[in-house]
Amino acid sequence: MAKHTLFVMGSSAIALTAAAFAAPAFAQETTPQAAEAASGNAADDGAIVVTGYRASLNASASIKRGAPTIVEALSAEDIGKLPDVSIADSLARLPGVTSQRLEGRDQRLSIRGLGPDFGTTLLNGREQVTVGDNRGVEYDQYPAEFFKNVVVYKAPTPSLVAAGIAGTVDLRMLRPLSQKDRIISLQLRGQMNGSKKLNPDGSRYGYRASAAYVDKFADDTFGIAIGVSATDAPSQNERYNAWGFPNSGSAGGALLLGGAKPYVQSNKLQRYGAVATLEYQPSENFHSTLDVLYSHFKETQLLRGIEFPIAPDWGSGATVEPGYKVSNGLVTEATISGVHAVQRNDRNSREADNFSVGWNNQVKLSDKINLNVDASYSLAKRTDDLLETYTGTGYSVSGPSDTLHISANPNGTFNIVPTLNYADKSIFGLTDPRGWGYNGTKAVVQAGFLNRPKFKDELISLRADLDGAIEGAGPIAGWQIGGNFSRRKKTSAFTSFFLCPKGTGSNCSVDSGTTQFAPIPDAAVIGTVPLAYLGVPQMLALDPVYLVNNSLSSVYDNRPVSLVRDNTVTEKVWTAYGMIKLDGDVGGKKLTGSIGVQAVYTDQSSTGSISNFDAATGNVLVVPATGGDKFWRVLPSANFSLEVANSTFVKLAASLSMVRPRLDQERVNQELNFNFQNLGSNDPTRPFFQSTGGNALLRPYKAANLDVSVEHYFPKGGYVSLAGYYKKLTDFVNPQRNLPFDFSAVAASLPAFIRDQLKTTVGVVSQPLNDGEGSLKGAEFTLSLPFSLVSPSLDGFGFYGSGSYTDSTIRLNSDPANPITLPGLSDWVGNASVYYEKHGFQVRASYRYRSKFLAEVAGLSANPTYRTAKAEGILDAQIGYDFQPGSALEGLSILFQARNLTDRPFITYQNNDTRQVIDYQRYGRDFYVGLSYKF
């Protein structure tokens, strides 16, 4: 409900703007528009009329009740309500749905314990591309104002093309012809982060503004909806990252902090969006809708911190002084001398454009047969600039060292108190403090690094279906057949550069005489920043853009590990489907639903590169590569909704479903490596040849699903439901399966002195493989309760909440004895909201909880990696007032909202030991004040 709550607020000017964005008729048998019409008819029949948040709950319940399958729904309150930062904020409050926070925002959704890779997202019934690295939609690319309804399908139907295993999220917008009157709506909201800005060039203040215009012409046969939205949202992040915890010989074999990277991070999200819809219905025989969405997204992250190499066992060169303290096998306090740290001033930026257009035409061919034709195009482009700059006391641990005192905190982080003054420009310069720079053949003076990945995701789709009615056949009410063709192409291109001090030498290489240490220019210094939350008083705050433009030289990174990342993945998919619709009586009970099947043919391919050995030059060479596969999948499904008693429904669903693997796993690329330490080994566990990459032959995950839901709807609003589900998963993707491979062709190109030492040409190829299986089961309970059902004196008060439990067992053939944890799965997820809404006043408090889970975070070179995240509970609240009819300010609404009042940090740890914290991110609280006006 809280989800509903926040989303409800979120229905804003553009929600109607979006009105034009009609969901294609084929998206689902019961549409949000139909549900809204039903609620409107109820009001005309003399039922009690409620508005605002309570109305949104009623509309959502109406969608859930009327759907012939198992769904959850969100409905916006009204135009002009202030939205959430992301639509995911609202979705995370639905039963069985939760989210992972990134940069303080809810972005990655998990449905029924399955992470974003197992679900799909539609816009008005159409599959969407994404600005993310893979298929999972980053929901903050969509302003919440653009949507009036969101439906989460937990069970597929034959007509639901591109359904996921976890579920399918359909973002829906209204049509202008469904509105009674002209609408003009304006909205403005100010934002403040509860923490002071952590960087001098950061900000704690932001805003959000939107406007919408909806109108009808030509005797209400032509409608138009136009909406715009602008967002400038800051966030602050106290960020800590540990390298890990080796068993240190310098500490008697106890676990010792290997190293740490405390940062302060200031983010700014800027997003500009627009929608436009044209809807034309000259008669009941023809209905045409054209809708367009465009969103421009830019995020800038300023990160300043220090990398402290600590454990001697990991090559820090430091010394653990006597007198360290150990508790239960972990060093909790120690003095570390001889530390050469790396001071970092980084700037990450992401700029993305998302464009979507869809044209839907419905033609009534006869009294019983309708034709629907839909064409759509979706395009997303994204460019990242990940800029790192380093300063230290000397090149390659040659300058003055530091002495640190480290001590464990109760939250799993470590205080790190230095001796050196990291704000003293006289002892720090532009350099490679640890001598880590290496271009694949020789040492380089790496005083910084620039990663610049680019992604382009393009999808075209054409769909047509025939829908017919059947009379006199009992519960069989109709039929539907159709087909869909889609072509998706995702291109990933990566470029990177070494950065070194300007001056002598070439190619940043040490042997060419590249300048190893350069003073920090005064113009680059913008002040200092404290890392006091972990014990570092202050450090230099530099402008990394100034440094890269004026003080650093860039050299293209042409290492094979960098060059073999470029790839293109193309999927051509033909889907045919057919189903029988059910709508009638069985034994005096109302029955709705469908029985049918999808047949899906896939032609997938990938172009990229592999690395090989070039005997002529003695270097590793990158060569082009292609690969792919073609296959069929047949996916039957059956959905039944039986009204066993007045307003009490039992819903059953059985289906086979699939979801495609991550796009980066389908790439053909392979990177060849030689491990010269294993040159004379014939032990298969110690291979000389190794290759790592993707698998263009990878098949989709498959699931056999069984779902049941019992739902009872109260006569004056609200409902209670209990649902259970079971999924049998096969063809589960092992992300890194090691397989033996004969590298004879590569061996033939090696120099004779290497070939003479080889004991075997068999090595290891590491790639994704469909070699896992398992099961998933769980239960969900939901209660939406207006307190007026308990007592009329409590009218206006209410509760919405849900709880779910999920259990999974996934085994990979490579290690069947050790089941794995599903990314994004929390065993327990709960949401609870209490509210009061009457006479224009709105008061709400919403709390959500999830138990520990496997979180996806950015690893080395921004590659995704997984770590266990701690349980978290987050409290949000809001209060508002809508000026009532008759008031001079009628149409005006004011709102105050607070997010993350618990100030809950995001924490990950390793080895099932909550003391071994790897990531700690504290985002602080956010506060909003907003105005909206509709006339």
Intertermini distance: 28 Å
CATH fold field value: Maltoporin, Chain A
E-strand count: 45
Global Rg? 29 Å
Number of helices: 9
Overview of the molecule:
One of its GO terms (cellular component) is cell outer membrane. It comes from Novosphingobium sediminis. Its main location: membrane. This protein is globular. It has 935 residues and is mainly beta. The protein contains nine helices and 45 strands. Helix 1 crosses helix 4 and helix 3 packs across helix 4. The protein has a single domain, classed as Maltoporin, Chain A (Beta Barrel), CATH 2.40.170. It has a 22-stranded antiparallel beta barrel. It has a five-stranded mixed β-sheet with strand order 1-6-7-4-5. The longest helix is centred in the N-terminal third of the chain and has 15 residues. Strand 4 and strand 5 form a beta hairpin.
